[in-house]
Specification:
The chain is an all-beta fold. It contains no helices and 10 strands.
Length: 112
């Protein structure tokens, strides 16, 4: 802790092993870190580094887009919350009515 603030790394330093680069085309509203270190992110974004993600994506530990994360048609609205269940399923909440082309009114569960 420095001056009352907690830092994940030394203040002012960059973790060069995980440079995100251009990133998403719109706001990320929620993130969750899976036990294997992969990052699930959701929000208003529809692309990440030019790759379509339909408001939800998963990054590998090095910050690259995880193409093995299946989202089908994705969401038709924003994702505001992401939580991980003990069984590995991802629970997402937000302002959407469909996920993966299936009616899901504001809450959806994705099996990994």
């Amino acid at each position: 802790m420095v001056n009352g603030k907690a830092y994940a790394q030394t203040s002012g330093s960059l973790n060069a092993s995980s440079v995100i680069g251009a990133g998403s085309d719109n706001m990320v509203m929620a993130i969750a870190i899976q036990p294997d270190g992969k990052i699930v992110a959701g929000g208003w974004l529809t692309t990440y580094k030019g790759i379509t993600c339909k408001r939800i994506l998963r990054l590998n530990t090095d910050g690259s887009f995880d193409t093995s994360f299946s989202i089908g048609a994705g969401f038709d609205g924003a994702v505001y919350n992401i939580a991980l269940q003990a069984d590995g399923k991802i629970v997402m909440g937000g302002d959407f009515t469909t996920f993966y082309g299936v009616p899901e009114d504001g809450i959806a569960i994705q099996a990994d």
